[in-house]
């Protein structure tokens, strides 16, 4: 009986000690976002979208080309896709825009469609506009020499 | 009633001369002022969104656009774009708008679903009206003649200059700038009743 109680107390102390040891460990991990994961997200900052520019070169071969213009207020809904108003094959010449890649015309079974596949409808999921925000971390990435 | 008024007015005019003219003049001012005040009141944002049809649909969409809120706080409210400023066109538009009272009573667009079903027709009405008056409501504030192309973006610069050369009007390109668009035919996915490409991008008048 006495022994049992003692073991229990020892186990309790041990677990408390582990917890106390773990606490400083957790504090040494700092996230790029600046606050704890469970804390409310800090304000994103007052970033502006960069003004129109010529096409931005890709940083690596498979990179979806970046959007070199503002997209504020652009409607991409079930009714209308503002991107395709200039980048579709029927519109790009008049708009002076880059035409959407033919790879986007395939449906998920590999069948060819006459226009972009509905699964490629939300352009801004991959093609992102640029803001004047500074990079959060330093990046020394360079593409492989053969494809630079 | 009007006969009596005329008679008594005429008699008073003879009897009182200047006094009557002054009274008629004042009454005229009050009547005209009252008429204009009511007319102006029906041009306010509060009046427009006193109906839930406007408040819950088009007003909500407009709240996300630059004409509702922007850097300098200069705004364009409903009537700035949808009611002509010039007196005669304004009266014509106001009289046409009585048709909307019928729609209100019948509940034509009293749910978001019904509104969506009518959006195509409603949008085309407004595009037709603005095309017919050379986008006058846009031009009340924005004029082609005073564009400074050097501070416009690469794309807007090009589009505005070629648009001006081709005799296009604002609404030919700037559709859906303050409200969501109706379905536009872009040949993506299934076919549905939609605005055709030549309505959405009217061909230039000088080709």
Question: What brief labels describe this structure?
Answer:
A: 148 residues; mainly alpha; Flavocytochrome C3, Chain A, domain 2; 3 helices; B: 207 residues; 12 helices; Periplasmic nitrate reductase, electron transfer subunit (chain A); heme (chain A); periplasm (chain A); metal-binding (chain A); electron transport (chain A)
Task: Describe the secondary-structure layout.
The complex is a heterodimer of chains A (148) and B (207).
Chain A: H1 2-28, H2 84-87, H3 92-95
Chain B: H1 2-16, H2 18-41, H3 45-48, H4 52-62, H5 78-82, H6 87-96, H7 98-106, H8 112-132, H9 136-139, H10 154-165, H11 170-173, H12 197-200
Helix pairs in contact in B: 1-2
Description of the structure:
The complex is a heterodimer of chains A (148) and B (207). Chain A has 148 residues and is mostly helical. Chain A has a domain at 47-134 and 141-148: Flavocytochrome C3, Chain A (Flavocytochrome C3, Chain A, domain 2, Orthogonal Bundle), CATH 1.10.1130.10. Helices cover 24% and strands 0% of the residues of chain A. The longest helix of chain A is centred in the N-terminal third of the chain and has 27 residues, at 2-28. Chain A is elongated, with a radius of gyration of 26 Å. In chain A, 7% of the residues are buried. Chain B is an all-alpha fold and 207 residues long. Chain B has 2 domains: 1-41; 56-200, no CATH class. In chain B, 59% of the residues lie in helices and 0% in strands. Chain B has helices spanning 2-16, 18-41, 45-48, 52-62, 78-82, 87-96, 98-106, 112-132, 136-139, 154-165, 170-173, 197-200. Chain A binds chain B through residues 51-53, 69-70, 73, 75, 77-81, 84-85, 88, 90, 96, 114-116, 118, 121, and chain B through 64-66, 153-155, 158, 176-177, 180-184, 186-189, 197.
């Amino acid at each position: 009986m006495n022994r049992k109680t003692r073991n229990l107390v020892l186990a309790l102390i041990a677990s408390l000690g582990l917890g106390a040891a773990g606490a400083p460990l957790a504090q040494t991990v700092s996230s790029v976002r600046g606050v704890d994961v469970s804390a409310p997200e800090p304000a994103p900052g007052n970033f502006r979208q960069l003004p129109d520019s010529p096409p931005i070169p890709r940083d690596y071969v498979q990179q979806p080309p970046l959007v070199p213009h503002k997209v504020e207020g652009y409607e991409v809904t079930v009714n209308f896709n503002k991107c395709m108003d200039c980048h579709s094959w029927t519109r790009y010449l008049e708009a002076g825009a880059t035409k959407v890649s033919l790879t986007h015309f395939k449906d998920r079974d590999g069948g060819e469609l006459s226009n972009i596949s509905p699964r490629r409808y939300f352009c801004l999921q991959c093609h992102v506009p640029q803001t004047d925000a500074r990079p959060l971390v330093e990046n020394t990435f360079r593409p492989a020499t053969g494809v630079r | 009633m009007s006969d009596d008024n005329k008679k008594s007015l005429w008699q008073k005019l003879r009897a009182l001369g200047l006094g009557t003219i002054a009274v008629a003049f004042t009454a005229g001012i009050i009547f005209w002022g009252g008429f204009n005040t009511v007319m102006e009141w029906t041009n306010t944002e509060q009046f427009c969104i006193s109906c839930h049809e406007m408040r819950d649909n088009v007003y909500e969409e407009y709240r996300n656009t630059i004409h509702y809120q922007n850097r300098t706080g200069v705004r364009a409210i409903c009537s700035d774009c949808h009611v002509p400023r010039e007196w005669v066109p304004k009266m014509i538009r106001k009289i046409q708008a009585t048709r909307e009272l019928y729609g209100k009573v019948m509940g034509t667009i009293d749910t978001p679903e019904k509104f969506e079903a009518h959006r195509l027709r409603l949008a085309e009405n407004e595009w037709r009206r603005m095309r017919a008056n050379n986008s006058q409501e846009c031009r009340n504030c924005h004029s082609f003649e005073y564009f400074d192309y050097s501070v416009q973006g690469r794309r807007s610069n090009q589009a505005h200059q070629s648009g001006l050369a081709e005799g296009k009007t604002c609404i030919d390109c700037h559709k859906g700038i303050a409200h969501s668009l109706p379905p536009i035919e872009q040949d993506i996915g299934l076919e549905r009743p939609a605005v055709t490409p030549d309505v959405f991008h009217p061909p230039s008048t000088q080709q």
